[in-house]
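Amino acid chain
________________
===
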Amino acid sequence: MYRHLREQIVTKEISPGSQLVEKSIEAELSVSRTPIRQAIRRLCDEGFAKLYAHRGAFVMNPSETEVLQAFEMWKYLEMKVAELVYNQVTYSDLQQLNKWISEGEQAWEAGDVERYLEADKEFHLFLAWKTGNELLHEFLERIINQVHVYVRMLERHSKTIPVIGRVKDHYSVVDALEEQDLSLLQTTLDEHTRYHATAWSWERSRQ
């Protein structure tokens, strides 16, 4: 049930901003309310929909401003992570980061958005985990998940992958960490998030 509704949202069979009405879904799919309610709750938890008191759940339909604000928050959190870990990363950590970069590159070249986003998330959250700050890790994971929802809802309609195509920036992050160069690391992260935000806006304007 969850996967079915999620796929309909990503492919826009269920339009952005539409209400997820349990009764209508029940009639369409001939299933009981319980799994429908559980699926809708999970979609809300993951950022594909939003629950409003006394109104129900609606598919996310973010404005460009809201999306750009999400990217800006991602950048802000990444800057704090950089400040805390730039001189704490070990050789083993760098190897692990390079492994996720390689997995992301392979996924990007194959056009596999889901696998790319998973590798991208692991890459960024690993650095947050290295800070030892659980709240920072939690907040960064939350904002990455939300940005990735926006990417999923956009990328399915694009024959290219401009939003996730800046894989090479990850190598620059690793180089800066290896050099323990905070200024270079923060500059790279800033350019990385700004590129994603700009590419997202450009791709959305084409649809």
